[in-house]
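BUG-446 | component: ligand-complex export | severity: low

The export step for nicotinamide-adenine-dinucleotide jobs runs without errors, but we want the raw record kept on the ticket for reference. Input record follows.
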Amino acid sequence: MKQKNLKLKDQIATPRGKVGVLIPGLGGAVSTTFMAGVELVRKGLAEPIGSLTQLGTIRLGKRYELRSPKITEFVPLASLDDLVFGGWDLYEANGYEAANYARVLNRDHLEPIKEFLSGIRPMKAVFDGRFVRNLDGTHVKKSENLRQQVDALKEDIVRFRSDHGLDRCIMIWAGSTEVYLSPQDVHQSYSALQEAVIRNDPNIAPSMLYAMAAIESGIPFINGAPNLTVDIPALIELAGEKSVPIAGKDFKTGQTLIKTILAPGIKARMLGLEGWYSTNILGNRDGLVLDDKDSFRTKEESKLAVLEYILQPSLYPTLYKNYHHKVTINYYPPRGDNKESWDCIDIFGWLGYPMQMKVDFQCRDSILAAPIILDLVLFMDLAQRVGMGGIQEWLSFYFKSPMHKENLYPEHDLFIQLMKLKNTLRYFMGEEQITHFGLDYYMNSE
Ligand SMILES: NC(=O)c1ccc[n+]([C@@H]2O[C@H](COP(=O)([O-])OP(=O)(O)OC[C@H]3O[C@@H](n4cnc5c(N)ncnc54)[C@H](O)[C@@H]3O)[C@@H](O)[C@H]2O)c1
């Protein structure tokens, strides 16, 4: 397979200099847990559990060669020491105050890095209360029109870059979930979008303005929430033209992670599904935002699609034609970030006999999301040095609703996603793809 202008193997630029990680939603639970975690790891005070880039290995060549280097030794990734954090929020709290508010990490983790976190101060946000109704922060930019807001964000980026002497930047949306928005005419081409921002079209969400500012500045953009944001033809077009990597949407953590682990197994054994009932209690600010039905609708779309794509009812009508799938999220403050999710899975086996499975996952949302951000930042930086512009489908491993090319269905099975990711790394480095075929070991033996 050939792609134009890619820089592979030793042509990939060595990651020199500092990398800015620009986060809209800088004061959120996920962002502060991510930044604090990176600093704790840098100081040798904690381990980067959950991060494929930091802990994962990759098998190369034939099984008998026993070659399984660490991913960090195989591909040229930026070092954690080179990451510099900044971004925007509509609350003025610094990183230390925001992390305390989020109540994810305990004092033992926050006190040793108090100075570091206190030095992270959000820039004024581009915000519109119509898109996130349950928040009322005032640390926001005032501009006549949306184009001026995009330009103000671009100026912030230029200033941040020069203040910290950065070589490269990555932007990642870890802001609140915006209300449901279906694609409109203004989203269909970059020229239509450009006109729309000048006349303040009501179908342009703030997250789209951040994405526009990033891509126009040549900065890779990742969307960690289920909002449309960069998943519109206009911005996909711009990212392709400027060869800027983009990826999304919605970090795959918690209940959906478990769903995309279990469902492929049920399907692999040709067991049927009668129903999958999923419910959650969640008490953080994300839970508060999702208490608004229109923000929840965005999340719901993202969570529901997963099973449909994995189970492929059109190919397996006997097993999956009429299953019931229900997902709810209940805002319940006492739990804070420590979400609890329940799944009641009604399956059937040989001759149609019913069986049940129950999963009670007492997870920590931001603890699961933080290593995803780290990996995405490092892999998107790599993608840019390789010259991979546009949608990075090989990173679908990290998302609930992976962005994909039109006319191509998304891959949701976690294990296929991991194979896709690792094969892409092998491709970058000129190593053979691993198909797990394996018969060759037996066919060629004497
Ligand atoms: N934690 C998880 O497991 C997980 C999984 C998937 C997706 N997500 C998504 O990640 C996002 C962040 O989650 P969280 O738990 O950190 O939420 P949070 O509410 O703690 O943080 C979101 C932050 O975004 C800020 N914000 C909102 N609109 C903004 C704007 N226009 N500009 C700048 N800042 C803005 C808010 O003030 C808040 O500080 C949410 O959209 C959530 O749905 C989280």
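Assignee comment: Attached the raw record above. Residues 365-386 form the longest helix (22 residues).
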